[in-house]
Amino acid sequence: METVHLGIVMNGVTGRMGTNQHLVRSICAIRAQGGVPLGDGRVVVPDPVLVGRNAARLEALAKANGDLRWTTDLDAALADRSNQVYFDSASTGLRAALTRKAIDAGKHVYVEKPVATTLVDALDLYRRAERAGVKHGVVQDKLWLPGLQKLKLLIDSGFFGRILSVRGEFGYWVFEGDWQAAQRPSWNYRKQDDGGIIVDML
37 φ, ψ to 5°? Predict the structure, then answer.
C-alpha cells in the first residue's frame, strides 16, 4: 500500500474556525485515522503547512497538532512544489488576492466562504481557476443542509404558491454593538473589515 503525502498550504488557520473546523476536526482527524484510502490501493495523507502573520501563534498551533510545518512566508509556501493545494480561511477582504496568487502558482484551491466580497472578484477567481486547469471549491456548509435542501424542493415544486416575502432566523443572535455590546467581535462580523452577517453567512 503506497502512501501519498498531499502538501496543503493552510492560510489563516490561527483563527477560531480555521483552527477548530478546518485544521483540528478535518485535516488532523484525517491524519490521525491514517489518511484517505483511494480505490487503487493508495492512501492520501494530508501534509499541511500552516501559514499566517503571527509566528508565535503558528508555532504553538503547529506544535500542539503534531509538529506540523509552519511559515509566515506565503510566497515560499506557494513556490514549494510539494504543496499542491491552497486552503484559505484568512479574512474575507484578503481572500480574492491571496487566492489569485495561489491559482497563479498552479495550486488547487479550496476557500472559506465567501469567496470574495464582490461578484466581480468571485467570477474572476472562478474563471482564473478554470483557465489554469486547477480544481477549485468553496466551503458552503449552509446551502447543503438537509432542511434548506427540502425547503428548495418545496419552493421549486410550487408548494408555497407565490412567495411575497421571506423572514430568516439564524441559529444564534449576533449583537452588532450599536445598542448592546457586541458579543462576536471577530472581523467577520464587522462590516468595515469586509465582514458583516450578510456577506459572511448569506
Answer: -75, 135
Report the greatest alpha carbon distance in the chain: 60
Question: 4 in helix, strand or coil?
Answer: strand
What percent of the chain clears pLDDT 70, i.e. is strictly above it?
86
SS3 of residue 128 by DSSP: helix
What are the angstrom distances between the C-alpha of 64 and each of 23, 32, 35, 57, 119? 11, 14, 19, 11, 38
DSSP code at position 113: S
The C-alpha atoms of residue 107 and residue 6 are separated, in whole angstroms, by 12
Contact by Cβ (8 Å): 8, 85: yes
Q: Extract the runs of DSSP E, i.e. beta strands, from 58-202.
A: 69-71, 83-88, 108-111, 136-138
pLDDT confidence of 16, banded at 50, 70, 90?
confident
What pTM, to 2 d.p., does this model score?
0.80
- CB count, 10 Å around CB of 17? 15
Provide the β-strand partners of residue 137: 110
147, amino acid identity: G
Whether residue 181 is predicted with pLDDT greater than 80 in this model: the reply is no
The amino acid that residue 178 corresponds to is: D
